Amino acid sequence: MSQTLPSAGEGALTHAGTPKRAAVASFLGSAVEYYDFFIFGSAAALIFPTVFFPSADANAAIMSFATFGFAYVARPIGAIILGHFGDRIGRRKVLLFTLVLMGASTFVIGCLPDFHTVGWWAPALLVLARLCQGLSAAGEQAGASSMTLEHAPDNRRSFFTSWTLTGTQGGQILAALVFIPVLALPDEIKFGIGWRIPFWLSAVVVVVAFLIRRTLHEPPAFEEARKNAEIAKLPVADLLKGHWRDVLRVICCAFIAAVSTVFGTLAISYAKTVAGVDGTTTLWLVVAANIVALGTQPLFGMLADKIGRKPVFIYGALASAVLTPVFLLSLESGSVPLMFLAAIGYFSGGYAAANAVWPSFYAEMFSTKVRFSGLAIGTQLGFLMAGFAPAIVAAMGGIKPGGWVQISIFTAIICAVAAVSALTARESFRIPTKQLGLK
């Protein structure tokens, strides 16, 4: 079976401009979805312990982080459901549905009563809305990555799919920028109506992204499979029969996503509690690192198209393990310039490598007929680690003086699991798209 790549233009002439449009649609859709997802993370660290729980102490922080993690419980269920329909009826329809569900559930969160109004019904309703967010997010990255990869030229798949995850960085930047002025409000406003505004604003950006995404057509690989009656009747059954090893591999590799929650959610609480760093400063750290990642992630994607997915992904995992204690100690140093330098190096120069490459790396393990399901189920099971990382580390005593040790050890272990799992994968960057996932 030949593994020689076509020239840069081969296979793209009949769909000129489509790879770019697919990448742009994936970027914008992911930015909107993960704006919604990340404002919840910021609120879980800085707002929800006061608003939704009876006392703003360490136990309230743990419970608040647990609500953040509940979305990751829903994500595997959503992955099975949305993966099935994504492989059966198409990527585009599922991606439109995920946008609407995420937007609606996020808007509802902004309308919820607080604990002092309805008691424990308040956190219960918060968890329910968070579960809906998780169901939506389960299909977003898998669908966007599948669609973009299947539209891309064979020799530039990693570059184009990197824009899906770069969109998540855009969403995190927007979420942080929206929350910064909220934190500057007086407490009675901030914990009253102020924190709700970022959640309500999601309705506007969801409408914009929906209008953009609905113009994109299904990728040629999926249309060809549908034309040739190669659509799986039960994608999950075919997936577990022919790709169960790849699903396990993706689950373990996807542990790397915990680095993102350590950086974007846990570190905010750690910096505030241990080092007395105000929430505005830590949010600016997130903004700065993600802005730089907007540039580094496409570069890492281009590198992976030249030298392969595995070396770039493994570098990102190992660099994250090494740089976690550096970043955490910088938060304790009191030096704001050092904090920014460490944050940018850690996230944009380390984790961004794995983050940029995984959409192509994981998706290329599966054939067209089960790609959406394989990518969704594998990543969402692996992302459970990311969802509960803040609560796990908080329960281990990581949110106290010296807690950087527990956080660093936890991060090093998950990064090592991801790196070792990646080593067992087949290198796929020279395999034509039509032959991906074929044994």
TrEMBL record:
Residues 22-430 form the Major facilitator superfamily (MFS) profile domain. The chain crosses the membrane at residues 34-54, 60-82, 94-112, 197-216, 247-270, 282-300, 312-331, 337-358, 370-397, 403-425. It is found in: Cell membrane. It is a multi-pass membrane protein. Keywords: Cell membrane, Membrane, Transmembrane, Transmembrane helix, Transport. InterPro entries: MFS, MFS_dom, MFS_sugar_transport-like, MFS_trans_sf. PANTHER family: SHIKIMATE TRANSPORTER (PTHR43045:SF1). This is MFS transporter. It comes from Arthrobacter liuii. The lineage of its organism: Bacteria, Bacillati, Actinomycetota, Actinomycetes, Micrococcales.
